[in-house]
Amino acid sequence: QVQLVESGGGLVQPGGSLRLSCVASGVIVSGYTMAWHRQAPEKQRELVASITSGGSTFYADSVKGRFTISRDTTKNTVYLQMNSLKPEDTAVYYCHTTRVGNNYWGQGTQVTVSS
Fold first, then answer.
1. Would you tell me which of 11, 36, 92, 95 could form a disulfide with 106, CB atoms 3.0–4.6 Å apart?
2. CB–CB of 34/71 below 8 Å?
C-alpha cells in the first residue's frame, strides 16, 4: 500500500526558506513521477513541481527559479526546497504520485508566508 507522509511546513517571513519532505512507502520514488501540489484557501489545487523517474523536472511558472524538487533514493524521500517565499505561496502542500492508475496523496503540510 502506498503511503506518502509530508513534513517541513510552517510559518515563515517573506523572503525566507523552507524545505518540505515527503517520505514514501509502497512506492520507490525513483521509479515513478513524484510531484508537489498546493491548495490555497478557496482556490483549486495546482501542480507546483514534479520529477520523473528519469530525473526530468517541471516547475510551475509561479515558482520557477525559487523552488527545487529533488529526491533521495536512500531515504525514499522527495523534497521541495522553497526559497524567496512570497505571501502568495501560502497553501497546504501535498505530495502526489500515481501507481497502477491510482492517485496517491499525502495528508498535506501547511505553509504560511507572513510577516
1. 95
2. yes
Give the phi and the psi of residue 89 in degrees, each rounded to 5: -85, -5
Q: Which amino acid is at 81?
A: Q
d(CA 43, CA 115): 22
Cell numbers representing residue 104 in the block: 496517491
Beta bridge partners of 5: 23
Could you tell me the three cell numbers for 59?
Answer: 516547475
Dihedral angle sign, alpha carbons of residues 30, 48, 65, 4: negative
For the stretch 72-112, pLDDT in tens is 999 999 999 999 999 999 999 999 999 888 999 999 999 99
Q: What are the DSSP E strand ranges found in 1-115?
A: 3-7, 10-12, 18-25, 34-39, 46-51, 57-59, 67-72, 77-82, 91-99, 102-105, 109-113
Rounded Cα distance, 23 and 75, in Å: 8
What is d(CA 15, CA 54) in angstroms, rounded to the nearest whole number? 31
For residues 30 and 12, what is the distance between their CA atoms, to the nearest angstrom? 30
Task: Indicate the SS3 state at residue 55.
Answer: coil
